[in-house]
Amino acid sequence: MARSDGERILTRKARLELGRDARKRQGRAKLGEIERKRSFDPIEILLAARRDRVPRLLPVKYQRMSASPFAFFRGAVSIMAADLGNARHTALFVQLCGDAHVQNLGSFEAPDGRIVFDINDFDETIAGPWEWDVKRMAASIVLAGQESEHSASASEEGAARFVNSYARAIKEMADQPILVAARHQIHRLKKAQATSAALQQAERAQPADLVRKYTQTEKGGRIRFRDARPILWPITGQAKRDVLEALPLYRDSLPPDRLHLFDFFRPLDVAFKVVGTGSVGLRDYVVLMEGNGQHDPLFLQIKQEVPSAYTPYLKVKQLGQEGRRVVSGQRKIQPISDLLLGWTRIGEHDYLVRQLNDHKGSVDIATLRGEGLAELAEIAGELLARGHARSGDALAIAAYIGGSDQALDSLVRYGVAYAKITHEDFAAFQKAIADERIPIAR
User: In a 3-state reduction of DSSP, which class is residue 276?
Assistant: First the structure.
């Protein structure tokens, strides 16, 4: 039996064999190995990631990264991509989240109005080996555990809970009907400390919150963006016209049913917004739009996208439009995505377009104290497994992992070891700041 593009559809037996054969390429015990003799300078890798970013905003990014090893880890995905990309892997590909860490999980409003908790950042998404996401999330749990005042053993236990949850979920989904696995739901979100707090934060948020935070009413009743530096400020002239002229291309990226809804809105104003740690320096615009009058605002975020940090290390077919890459990756990973998700281009740069969601909740490090870390670790494992089952072959991954703890122990060992490397890289980063090799905002 063959697909329309000529590729064979493998039988269940062949997919199991594919997973077990991957052990010959990358042994399960070797999943925990890290090459300590790097062929690159991590600071140079970090500085190379400045390409296509706004130079005057980079000191803000570096200042945020200087807060702690975990904050550094969040902003230094290019360094870990180089470490992973220069090592052997299983070649069992899924759609990677790419920047898998605990603070890239959060709650947001689904198209049907429900508040859901899921992965919420896909800037680095790309087709790649499943274990890269698992290794990055495991390291992030160790670092987040340290930041939330857990002991070394408790932080390592958090990584173990995550890896075991991932393996348990991927094996469960491997044996489920494919469409059942694709829409797998997690039912304990309101019982876990970190996820419950994020859900409540999103539920409390109201559309008027963004209006109060970012806009002002002028004479005649016109609503415009306020100057809320250093986070957001209005733009004018050609820069504003360039953003508005990109909306028709975005419109063309929407499915017909979403297009119909978008056409009821008209643009009122445009602002520039500074975004989160990993994305600081990228161009990010917000368009204020109006639907059924002033009581019906829409904040449309137009966020610059650059090639994934993993692109140099993977020989995969690229879409040629970075905003489209992110949209495609998000839809493969998530069962539910933004109603107005699309892409466009402004000048020489590609952009993702989505709602600047008023209903959002993030993971607060303080909620990871006590049992919070272990609870979130288990949910993270299940979410990542669902994304990999939707976009890859859960059966092959489950066959690779097998019935022993060898692969799981190796992945935990990797997470712990990479957290130590992150501390070393953070020390080098601090030295580079002291030597004025890296400028930071004071």
Answer: coil
